[in-house]
Amino acid sequence: MIAVILSLAASVCWGVGDLIGGLASRKGPAWTITLAAQCAGVVAGFVLLVGLGRPWPGWGGILPAVAVGLALAIGSVAYFTALARGKMSVVAPIVATCAVVPVIWGVVRGDSLSLLQVGGIVLALVGVAFASRESADEPVPVGALEASTMVDGHAQGGRWSVPLALVAAFFFGAVMVGFAVAAEHDPYYPPVISRAVSALLIAGVLAARRRPLMPPRAVRRPALVAGLLHVTAATCFSVASTLGYLSVVSVLSSMQAIVMVALAHVVLRERLAVVQRIGVVLAIVGALAVVAG
Whole-prediction pTM value? Predict the structure, then answer.
């Protein structure tokens, strides 16, 4: 029961943090916003480690977290850019399918999938296809042009939001697997170490390209808040992965899509086409089926 509560808490924190970070990415470059969010997470996580008096877990718990940092950097930049360019209520359910990666990881390691779980994965993938049917004429949100220039030097429009969301889903799934592996040694270090590595990588890329390291003043506070919510979510997930099955914990934690869709509808008044609504529902139902199986 504790694992379930922590997983759901993670999904809420991720969902709210994603909305705040996504809105910030519509007003500034996704790279610098991601960097600010990761730095905030490192500071908050370090304070937590000191407060709890956690001992050094050894390199067996640190090295997987370092690898997670690379995946987290790629996934975070892709995700915030997708949120800036496309509809959040479409992007979020696509990224929620990241839970498929830990499930497949379990199968490779010898776990067996039930028929319901297999059906859930298929439903989630079909939902992604349906939700991805975004109009090519969809207007690019204000600020998305800034975010897109950080990727390839010129605006690509909203049509790239779906591929970027798929990239984010894969790498976030890898992050979940890495957290679970590292958490076997200590569940509190991975969120901090991975964010430190992610921040260093992003800062290195920005410095090499002679880009600013700080986001615009108007979005610094939202970026920091998003980072605090994300590190809280990651810590809840990491601890939950030591108390329950990874397949269940990962899917419950990925239910931030429900939070995001609800917030996008209420806060942003986003409207979806019928086929997109079907896709969102299928993606969410598919994820729930994985848990039920």
Answer: 0.76
First to last CA, the chain: 17
Residue 193 one-letter amino acid? I
CA-to-CA distance for 167 and 244, rounded, in angstroms?
Answer: 27
pLDDT at 40: 94
pLDDT in tens, 179-190: 888 888 899 999
